[in-house]
């Protein structure tokens, strides 16, 4: 008999997950779930996904990011949605430090000087900066230090050429909000190997730019994690150096902040930055027509756990309990709660058992809670 020929292409929408959870928690058809109850169910789904990061580490929420540092500043901001920083590194690279050409053929060498300079106006339309490496050069990272003080949200394009005349698009960088005076770094995977490289801003006007880094041979050297006491006991927290060697993860309400030591001096600011392996939250449920950001193996666990929450959250008139007398209602609700709890416990155990990697386990002694 024929099979579908597809794997993991059948995805349940948010609405379908809620409908299945409603049926399991009440035994009723999903048609009775409407209006306010739909919103309640989606809110419960949101808190359920948010709580998963407290139980353990959903491996698909691991994220490697290259962050931005400031001269003389210990604070390194993490991306929105970050839960915790697992490992932090000082990333050293060897940027291009030579000639460059702007859109109109004028000199743009100052953009690669690796030293403080005035903003450079790159003429438009579609302003660009090009370099000739002389020979094929492998570029594994791009750094952009936007000029001015305003923030601009856009996606920059990398173009390559074999002769310096005919350029073709090689990669479009992720849409990013660039802020004047702050580095935005992009890790290239796969790397780009070319003799001529151009970065272009698609715009009808000009481009106010301060610095660029075309990085090669980037190296990540792990920083030592220290506690809140060790950090605030440092006698000189503003001591500056060419690279940070220690960091403290400050857990804030919205997102963690890395406090690094020593703080970056001018050379560190232009020739290195911080990279990290972080845990982030699972994406929000979104619209009812969206799908959840969970692997296929997690659907049963999420549906059963959502069902266990809906038993208590949904109004009795939507779950069939309102027509029962007091004693019968209590007994039926307890029965539903136990059934859903049993299903959720079993499915979650199976799902968590698969959150593993085949590599060796390295045990590092650590204290998960704060202690003096």
What CATH architecture of the largest domain do you see?
A: Sandwich
Low-confidence stretches: none
Q: Cα-atom Rg, whole angstroms?
A: 26 Å
Mean pLDDT comes to 93
**CATH level-4 homologous superfamily of the largest domain:** Galactose-binding domain-like
Number of domains: 2
Encode the helix/strand succession as letters. Answer: HHEEEEEEEEEEEEEHEEEEHEHHH
- Number of E-state strands: 18
> How would you sum up the major sheet?
10 strands, antiparallel
- Looking at the structure, what is the overall shape? elongated
Specify the helix fraction band.
10-25%
Description of the molecule:
- The structure is a single chain.
- With 372 residues, the chain is of the alpha+beta class.
- The chain folds into 2 domains: 14-57 and 283-324, no CATH class; 59-281, Galactose-binding domain-like (Jelly Rolls).
- It has helices at residues 14-26, 36-55, 228-232, 266-271, 299-313, 316-319, 326-353; strands spanning 62-66, 75-77, 82-95, 101-102, 120-122, 128-146, 151-154, 157-161, 167-172, 176-179, 183-200, 207-222, 224-225, 240-241, 246-250, 257-261, 263-264, 272-280.
- Strands 1, 3, 4, 5, 6, 8, 9, 11, 12 and 18 form a 10-stranded antiparallel beta sheet that branches.
- The model has no long low-confidence stretch (mean pLDDT 93).
